[in-house]
Amino acid sequence: MQFKIIAVGKLKERAFDAKCSEFVKWLSPYAQVEVVELPDGGREKEKKEILRALEKERNSLVVIMSEEGKLMNSLEFAGYLGRADRRVVFVIGGPDGLDPEIRGRGDLLWSLSPLTFTHELARLLLLEQLYRAMSIIRGGKYHRI
């Protein structure tokens, strides 16, 4: 599998960066993971940058992450990824949230939780759930049923 994460903002905290890197490493036997960090700088600028990045992803399955999106448990998320027949691109917005135009550009509007998280925490949670989903799909021991 191939995953791409388009994220507004850099990971400023070393602990987040280290843990995200660890999950990318753990995912490497199962999937290629590419992370693209876009500069933050206000909702309008971020919108333009995200739209530009999505132009390159016309053949990818695009998942827009938003607290208003569909809730799935880990097994449902693994099932969704298991049915994916192409690269999956995840979009994480910046501190001002995502422009409505961006929320309408995905194949799925997905929520990690009804709570709002910082972009750093959202990225960490996404990577953890990607690893968990791949473990479920591959029958690994990370996720106990």
Tags for this model:
single chain, 145 residues, alpha/beta, five-stranded parallel beta sheet, 5 strands, 41% helix, globular
Quick overview of this protein structure:
Helices cover 41% and strands 23% of the residues.
- Spans of at least 5 consecutive residues whose pLDDT stays below 50 are none
Total number of beta strands: 5
Structural class, by secondary structure, is alpha/beta
On the 0 to 100 scale, the average pLDDT is 93
Main sheet summary: 5 strands, parallel
Relative helix content: 40-55%
Rg (C-alpha, Å):
14 Å
- Count every helix, treating DSSP H or I runs of 4 or more residues as helices: 5
Strand content: 15-25%
Report the principal-axis shape. Answer: globular
Explain the overall architecture:
The protein is an alpha/beta fold and 145 residues long. Helices cover 41% and strands 23% of the residues. The protein has a five-stranded parallel beta sheet with strand order 2-1-4-3-5, sandwiched between helices. Helix 3 links the parallel strand 3 and strand 4. Helix 1 packs parallel to helix 5 and helix 3 packs across helix 5. It is globular, with a radius of gyration of 14 Å. The chain starts with a strand and ends in a 7-residue tail after the last helix. 29% of the residues are buried.
Give the helix/strand layout.
Blueprint: E1 2-8, H1 14-27, E2 32-38, H2 43-55, E3 61-71, H3 74-82, E4 88-92, H4 100-103, E5 108-111, H5 119-138
Parallel strand pairs: 1-2, 1-4, 3-4, 3-5
